[in-house]
TrEMBL record:
Organism: Coccidioides posadasii (strain RMSCC 757 / Silveira)
Cross-referenced InterPro entries: tRNA_yW-synthesising (IPR003827), tRNA_yW-synthesising-like_sf (IPR036602)
Identification of the protein by name: tRNA(Phe) 7-[(3-amino-3-carboxypropyl)-4-demethylwyosine(37)-N(4)]-methyltransferase
Enzyme class: transferase
UniProt region (Disordered), positions on chain: 71-109, 268-328
Amino acid sequence: MTSARSFEAKKLKILGSLSLPDEEYTDLSPKGSVDVGIRGLIRDINRLQGLVTTSSCAGRISVFLEGARLSAEPSQDGGEREEEEEVGGELSSAQTRQFASTGGKGSGKWQFVSHDPVNIDQSRHSFHELFGLQPGNGSMKAGKNREMQLVRFHFEPMILHIMAESLKHAQPVLAAASSAGFRESGIQSLRCLDDSNACPIVAVRSSGLALESIIGYVEKGNSPEESTVRSLVSEEYLRMLVSIANERFQSNYARMDRFRTKLLALSSGSPSNLSSQKREWEDADRRRERKRAEGLQRREAARKAAKPNDKTPESEDEMPLDFPDAQG
């Protein structure tokens, strides 16, 4: 099977899954379904030739309770490291994504997750209640650090995995991602260099908007049932974190819109013909030289088009200078 036919078969399978009702659909993201805030972008990407989305997250606010430590070298985020496989099993086993399932031995659990900005409404309930925290006095009981379970507040911006038919099709995705502010984007799977049936996977992501703060810990009791998830911060501090995360959600949405606009512009016409898009990849010196040459060409064309007796300067840069005759 050729690379193009292999890609089309995978894309048809993925699009078939996307057409299922929400309650039946699952994808490769930890949530297992498509966030409402990113569905329009996914729809537009999947309409493009040579591209299809494999997993996504529109961004999220979360509160995560670490699992109990099981070894001397625990995971930093308290979550299990699970292998993420491309539909059809084509993704390299080296490509992994760390996330925590709800519950599970040593895995920790989500105290709160929202894929949309959180409505700050004091009349409903406190953020301590919303995040499953018991108020504390800001101090932590002494204990063994190795056994400490922390509670972390997170804001994470959009992450999107896109399968491309070829490196040529992946090129405009990377250009659009970088232009929109997703600076940590890159190609995660390059098996296509050795395997004609494999397809490159582009991860569109950015860490610049991410936010993390430790807000609590597990206060151990005589038994697990007697343990308390205790807050280390005030209600006002939690409210501030939520407000900052909501603002970053808006910045995240703006970047998503820029990415969509740029990708559609780069992919307009014939997506498989990217020769006209190579300027996106020129370095700063080459771009500066090209701009200078184009400016000189435009200036020369304007000069030739001007009437012979028209002495009006074409720009401030061309303002005539009169010098007195040199005295011998």
